[in-house]
Amino acid sequence: MEDTVDHLAHERSKAQFNVEEMKIIWAGSLHALQVSDRIAKLVASDPGFGKENRAVLSRKDLFKSALKKAAYVWKRINELGLSEEETSWLRFYVDELAYDYVHWGMFVPAIKGSATEEQQNKWLPLANTMQIIGTYAQTELGHGSNVRGLETTATFDPVTDEFIIHSPTLTSSKWWPGGLGKVATHAVVYAQLITDGKEYGVNGFLVQIRSLDDHFPLPGITVGDIGMKFGSGAFNSMDNGVLRFDRVRIPRNQMLMRVSKVTREGKYVESNIPKQIIYGAMVYVRQTIVADASIALSRAVCIATRYSAVRRQFGSPQNDQNGNGIETQVIDYKTQQSRLFPLLASAYAFRFVGEWLKWLYTDLIQKLEGNDFSTLPEVHACTAGLKSLTTSAAADGIEESRKLCGGHGYLSSSGLPELYATFVPACTYEGDNVVLLLQVSRFLMKTISQLQSGKKPTGTTAYIGHVEHLIQCGCNVKKAEDWLNLCVILEAFEARAIRLLVACAENLTKFANPLQGFSELSPDLVEAAVAHCQVIVVSKFIEKLQQNIQGIGVKQLLETLCYIYSLNLIHKHLGDFLSTRSITPKQASLASDQLRSLYAKVRPNAIALVDAFNYTDHFLGSVLGSYDGNVYPKLYEEAWKDPLNESVVPDGYHENIRPVLKQQLQNARL
Ligand SMILES: CCCCCCCCCCCCCCCCCCC/C=C/C(=O)SCCNC(=O)CCNC(=O)[C@H](O)C(C)(C)COP(=O)(O)OP(=O)(O)OC[C@H]1O[C@@H](n2cnc3c(N)ncnc32)[C@H](O)[C@@H]1OP(=O)(O)O
Ligand SMILES: Cc1cc2nc3c(=O)[nH]c(=O)nc-3n(C[C@H](O)[C@H](O)[C@H](O)COP(=O)(O)OP(=O)(O)OC[C@H]3O[C@@H](n4cnc5c(N)ncnc54)[C@H](O)[C@@H]3O)c2cc1C
């Protein structure tokens, strides 16, 4: 008989805050919570969205199952007449990577951002109804980070009014685009534009790659899948592809011409729109990846927290003299708390900074519509930097969560290995995290150099305008409780960031060649960029706390998490804080003392804090993280489902086990 006991009920009863209100904070609004909750339940109750066995399916079967699910998603969206908001929640909860992620996540945004109105009117209705399926073909075998170095060419032929798309070398083969390998019918292809014998840099072109009748590649096109990727399940449900062009002709009007165009006569004409707009789809996706990072991390933390409350090891004060009695919940070990609770705090921090980044991006889009490009550099720096910071921390956090679950965390049924394998490439796609931090540092060095000309930094760099104060100020913390002051914390982070930035700027002046200086100092520049991004995350968490937060205990718990996030970072980056004299060694030790008290405050609320994510068991996909905490029967049951357990004596026994055993027996007799 099924066990219906809630093994975590006691933990839930200890919560000191209103969980339902916290769910609203996490979701963003009551409306968002209601819609997401409804769709989560819809997905969890529909067998068509079941995700059992993913880890044991062969690549072909996994791919087929992802195709089936994507088609079913599309069918249900249409049958139920889901709104755009409901649709995105549906895809989110279905939780299976397939071509549709890149179609909706990159192909459509690339057309929206880089195509003219006329082009959008032609292509968007086709894409929006999935009469065509698209991919984003930028990266090549030889070049990913260096977009300017792409080799694919698009040469204008004035005789036929066409572009000739060509892959001149092996290294120019498009490599990685998701959905390209086996599904996409069209691609936005990034290529070097050549007209009238001159090169005009990278531009986007809309190219049909497969027939809409029989799905065969069109003439001149070679296309296929690039092969198995890291981990079982995970990104292997996606057909990342390779694509080569042998002088493929497309009409001139399939160049995406919002930013610049080629006339009928072959003249290249630039508009007043910055060229960087052609990289707009990347800015859009980087912003969404910050939200993905908070989801992926919160998912891992939810599993690790629930399991840590169920798992018991060694004796406890309640034991009798013989050590008999109940063992200690591993969540009560201080080491477990010091590893787990900062991750929990980070999940909340990333959620809030992601929410703010979405606002910043929406604001940019509104400004662009009015031809105001002033915030583009800052939005580029924020999306690049926060994508880098949050994905690196989330990927590390998922792996730490696996370790927090001990041996069982290594089992596929814990859900953690696949979560890690699915999420870790986010550190690479949409821009390698180090390359992106170098972009941030370039922006910051420019901001600092403009101080001399009297330009006042604004937005996320406003603190750089207070350079004199921040270079001189000292931290006033004298006892552990003094750290419970958000202004003190923010100033320590700003002081550390600005001191690292100014040191970089000063060191750069020692090089006659600025490019060489930038390259030599790049490790320091990356560290300074991280410090700046941490200022953003901490300050956005603080801003969140200043909003009208309802519900008993909710604000207090969020404050506790904000302190944990910040003080743990001080602990982790102590070298920076000490070497810049932003804090003293004594203050560092007081921060550690304060952290211990903060962990004690979180402990009774830990389960409720992960319940506030409102994840269904279907979405979590983990026997260790299920809501009822009934871990052991679920683990036991799951093991028996493995294909190896279908037969008692394994296939291969007669060929490969029995002869070995016999030989050992014979050897022993000799
Ligand atoms: C059941 C289990 C399942 C488990 C589920 C787990 C759940 C996990 C959740 C997550 C799953 C989500 C999965 C979603 C699917 C995702 C699919 C992935 C799709 C990936 C797509 C891609 O990767 S597309 C390719 C992306 N490529 C890149 O990002 C390339 C990086 N390189 C660049 O961006 C550039 O080349 C560069 C910026 C690094 C350098 O370029 P360049 O040399 O030209 O630039 P400069 O440095 O000279 O800069 C010039 C100037 O421009 C400014 N600038 C640069 N870029 C931008 C920009 N994008 N926008 C605005 N401005 C820009 C730069 O700052 C300079 O300005 P100056 O003023 O001149 O200084
Ligand atoms: C799962 C997945 C899905 C993807 N989907 C798509 C897609 O749909 N469409 C698409 O076009 N692309 C896609 N990509 C490609 C992705 O965008 C690139 O892999 C990414 O931009 C990194 O580029 P790269 O592979 O060339 O890395 P490289 O640039 O070769 O990086 C290798 C190493 O060099 C370092 N490095 C590189 N340049 C510098 C520098 N200037 N200074 C210091 N260090 C440097 C990096 O930090 C890294 O450590 C995908 C990739 C993955 C893994």
UniProtKB/TrEMBL annotation:
Name of the molecule in the record: Acyl-coenzyme A oxidase
Q: Does the keyword Lipid metabolism apply?
A: yes
Residues annotated as binding FAD: 139, 178
Residues annotated as the enzyme's active site: 430
State its location(s). Peroxisome
Q: Which PANTHER family match?
A: ELECTRON TRANSPORT OXIDOREDUCTASE, PEROXISOMAL ACYL-COENZYME A OXIDASE 1
Cross-referenced InterPro entries: ACOX_C_alpha1, Acyl-CoA_ox_N, Acyl-CoA_Oxase/DH_mid-dom_sf, Acyl-CoA_oxidase, Acyl-CoA_oxidase_C, AcylCo_DH-like_C, AcylCoA_DH/ox_N_sf, AcylCoA_DH/oxidase_NM_dom_sf
Q: Which organism is it from?
A: Rubus argutus (Southern blackberry)
Its ancestry begins with:
Eukaryota, Viridiplantae, Streptophyta, Embryophyta, Tracheophyta
